[in-house]
């Protein structure tokens, strides 16, 4: 029995010695050693920087990195595994693979045009990036983004856009007064220069209204400038141009006459000329000017019936009363019964309106001296004055004669027979002064 026990103890010791090889997890122990000792490590300890490893060994959890140990490598949040995710302790005392935990990195952010960004830790995990824009530009998109563990940024790409309109200031144009004789004023100003708050470049400056240096009419004129920048933003400024015309109280056309004014007829510097119809003479000023104080020069103009003085002593004095005022048609006949004379007067009576329009006064010299008489419409001339007039104009008292004198007393035409009113009018209408008179009469609405 004792021999059998001895054999068993010896066999057990041999088995134990055989199991205690390197890397087995067993070890020769002495009395002072703990029998739970896990054994000599076979592979180097597993160390995971920025992570950890979970291992399983053939001998249970108390045996670390012994032969056959299998470990799974894990990285902490914000890091990603590069290499083997699972390693095995091999007989060569080496782990079956290599591994490392590298910090998560997001794609590089694109630099926004006309702006930039600033990050707390580059493109690495949990880095916060703040976007900013250059002066004059506005940020569109996320103002800040963060690099996430998914290797993606928390927001999209941000842009810097030129959304601010340019700046333009219109000129300050003072009120302008029209020059003498004009109803317009020349207004000039400097073209405003716009300013862009972003890149400083303007593409167009557009004026709505008349350009500087233009003659503006009386009243208010609205003007505006519009500018555009390269982004299409626009700015508009407006200004008013006021033109004032100094005016006198408008004059009235005199009764039995007409008035012709230049300019606007009542503006500062305007001149108004006055004329009277046939049979009337001008009283007051023949021309009046609107002055700076907005008062008319001269005296009020009117047309009064022409007062012919037949009591003068000579024919020359009689004719002087018509100088530059009237044309004269002088008819001389030996007797009132003369058939030429009767025909002539009948024809003229039917054309009295045309004679008045042409400022024609008819003087009749009838009979022979000493019984001859003269007549201007309803006024009779003394026989002596009638004789002087015949002698001055060299008219025979024994024959029929017709003489046409213009307003300067010039002999225009003579006839020894009756003449039609149409022929007389044709001669008068060919005189340059009459052309001007006809135009004035037409403007005044005078006619037959």
Automatic annotation (TrEMBL):
All copies of domain HYR, residue ranges: 161-245
GO biological process entries: phagolysosome assembly
PROSITE patterns linked to this entry: HYR, SUSHI
Disulphide bond pairs: 133-160, 276-303
The keyword Metal-binding appears for this protein: no
InterPro entries to which the protein is assigned, alphabetical: DUF4174, HYR_dom, SRPX-like, Sushi/SCR/CCP_sf, Sushi_SCR_CCP_dom
Signal sequence interval, chain numbering: 1-20
Domain of life: Eukaryota
Alphabetical keyword list: Disulfide bond, Repeat, Signal, Sushi
One Pfam family from the record: HYR
Sushi domain ranges (all copies): 53-103, 104-162, 246-305
Protein name per the record: Sushi repeat-containing protein SRPX isoform X1
Native source species: Ictalurus punctatus (Channel catfish)
Phylogenetic classification of the source organism: Eukaryota, Metazoa, Chordata, Craniata, Vertebrata
């Amino acid at each position: 029995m004792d021999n059998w026990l001895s054999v068993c103890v010896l066999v057990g010791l041999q088995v134990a010695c055989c199991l205690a090889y390197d890397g087995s997890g067993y070890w020769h122990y002495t009395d002072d050693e703990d029998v739970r000792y896990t054994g000599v490590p076979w592979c180097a300890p597993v160390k995971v920087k920025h992570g950890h490893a979970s291992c399983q060994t053939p001998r249970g959890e108390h045996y670390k990195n012994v032969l056959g140990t299998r470990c799974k490598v894990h990285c902490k949040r914000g890091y990603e595994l590069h290499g083997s995710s699972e390693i095995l302790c091999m007989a060569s005392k080496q782990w079956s693979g290599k591994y490392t935990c590298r910090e998560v990195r997001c794609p590089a952010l694109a630099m926004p045009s006309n702006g930039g960004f600033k990050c707390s830790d580059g493109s690495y995990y949990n880095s916060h990036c703040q976007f900013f824009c250059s002066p004059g530009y506005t940020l569109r998109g996320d103002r800040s983004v963060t690099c996430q563990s998914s290797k993606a940024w928390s927001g999209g790409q941000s842009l810097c856009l030129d959304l601010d309109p340019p700046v333009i200031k219109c000129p300050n144009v003072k009120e302008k007064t029209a020059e003498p004789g004009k109803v317009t004023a020349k207004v000039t100003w400097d073209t405003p220069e716009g300013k862009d708050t972003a890149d400083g470049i303007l593409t167009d400056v557009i004026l709505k209204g008349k350009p500087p240096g233009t003659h503006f009419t009386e009243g208010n004129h609205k003007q505006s400038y519009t500018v555009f920048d390269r982004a299409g933003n626009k700015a508009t400024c407006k200004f008013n141009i006021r033109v004032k015309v100094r005016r006198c109280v408008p004059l009235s056309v005199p009764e039995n006459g007409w008035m012709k004014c230049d300019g606007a007829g009542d503006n500062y510097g305007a001149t108004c000329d006055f004329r009277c119809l046939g049979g009337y003479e001008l009283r007051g000023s023949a021309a009046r000017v609107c002055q700076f104080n907005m008062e008319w020069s001269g005296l009020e103009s009117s047309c009064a019936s022409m007062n012919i003085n037949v009591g003068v002593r000579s024919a020359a004095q009689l004719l002087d009363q018509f100088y530059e005022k009237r044309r004269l048609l002088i008819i001389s006949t030996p007797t009132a019964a003369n058939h030429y004379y009767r025909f002539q007067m009948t024809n003229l009576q039917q054309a009295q309106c045309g004679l008045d329009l042409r400022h024609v006064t008819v003087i009749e010299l009838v009979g022979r001296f000493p019984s001859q008489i003269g007549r201007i419409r309803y006024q009779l001339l003394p026989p002596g004055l009638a004789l002087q007039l015949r002698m001055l104009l060299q008219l025979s008292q024994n024959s029929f004669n017709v003489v046409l004198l213009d307003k300067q007393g010039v002999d225009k035409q003579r006839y020894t027979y009756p003449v039609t009113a149409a022929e007389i009018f044709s001669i008068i209408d060919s005189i340059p002064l009459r052309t001007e008179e006809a135009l004035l009469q037409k403007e005044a609405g005078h006619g037959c």
